Structures are given as structure tokens and as C-alpha cells.
């Protein structure tokens, strides 16, 4: 009789030299994603010149929420290149919740500043793809946070699904939210404000920067939760 189905380890079939090269490349990618998220956030904050107007706080809050806090909230679970790799799983979950709480707080403030700026300028709302995507991203973020509460307190909420399946659902929905946030950030590069502020090759660099952390996050979640090649004995 075949034994229980197992999952093959990452890097199976590689020679020792190729395996370590694979590990170091993954580690370099995660570290680069950390640096990219932080660098993009700081750059947008400098370009926005916070305090010069109500609108200036909108890109600051949103970049802190999604480019920094949400990215770090996911990457802290990475086994390669995370500054929290020596923290226990329980500790990482608490840090994840802290980061996601910051996401909600910063995003809510960013939305408030945007609405206030539009009202003061007497401009209509939801006229661009960026604004529509932004509302979808904020709604998905709130729903994902609510799902996280269910994962944290399944017995209290009397959820019937097993914990492993709930984790899979949470991770999958989280990936969708992160990719949606990435599309929203990229769409901001086409706004009148950003195109008037950043031009030439720098604009193309900003356009591509959010994509790298998204690829790293997508790779991390799919490797952690999607079935790999099955092996039997």
C-alpha cells in the first residue's frame, strides 16, 4: 500500500551547488523586496511634500499602508531574508496583525485626506480608474482583515472549516488583495499629479518598482500553500 501523500521539498532534483544557488537567489530577492518597498515609500513621501496641501497626505498614507506595512506584513513570514526569521510563529502572527492594523489605519487616513481634498476643491469623486481601484482595494482590505479575525478566533465565531483550510483561504485572498493593491499603486503613476511630478526614465522606474515585491510575495504564498509535486513511496 502506498504511504500517505507527501509534498516534495522546494529545490528537489537540484544538485547541491544548484540548490544553494537557488536558496541565495531567493534570499536576495526577499531582501531586495524589503528595500524596494521601503525605498518606494520614502520616495513617494518626499515627492508628496506632506503638509503642503490636504492631498499631499494621501500618497504618503497610502504608500505607508500598502508599499511598506502590507509588504512587510507578508514578508515577515519568509524563511529567507526576513529580519524576523528567528521569531516564533506565534510572534510572527502578532507582528502580522500589527502590520495589517497599521495598513487599515494608514489607508483610512489616506482616504479621509483624499475625500477632504476633493470636497475643499469642489471636485467630483470616482472619476478615474485609480479612484475606482482604490475603493475596491480598501473594501478588499477590510474584508480580508475580517477574515483574519475569523482565522484568529475560529472557535469563538463557530467556524466549521478546519484551521489549515482557513489558512489557505486567508493566504489566497491576501494574495488577491496584495495584487489588487499593486495594480492600484501602478495606476497612481498615471495620475496627473504624478506625471507632472516625475518624468522621463524616473517615471518608468517608479512604474516598475511595485511589481518586484508583488512577484516575491506571490512566489512566497504559492510556495507555502499551493501543492507541489506529490511523491509516494
TrEMBL record:
Tell me which Pfam families the record gives.
Cytochrom_B561
A GO molecular function for this record?
transmembrane monodehydroascorbate reductase activity
Instruction: Name the EC number(s).
Output: 7.2.1.3
* PROSITE patterns to which the protein is assigned, alphabetical: CYTOCHROME_B561
Question: Sorted alphabetically, which SMART domains does this protein's record hold?
Answer: B561 (SM00665)
Q: Which InterPro entries match?
A: CYB561D1/2, Cyt_b561/ferric_Rdtase_TM
What is the membrane topology listed in the Swiss-Prot or TrEMBL record? Answer: Multi-pass membrane protein
* Domain Cytochrome b561 stretches: 22-228
Q: What is this protein called?
A: ascorbate ferrireductase (transmembrane)
Superkingdom of the organism of origin = Eukaryota
What keywords does the record list, in alphabetical order?
Electron transport, Heme, Iron, Membrane, Metal-binding, Transmembrane, Transmembrane helix, Transport
- List locations, semicolon-separated: Membrane
Which Gene Ontology CC terms are recorded?
Answer: membrane
Which cofactor(s) does the record list? heme b
Per the UniProt record, which residue ranges are transmembrane? 24-49, 55-77, 97-117, 129-154, 166-190, 202-226
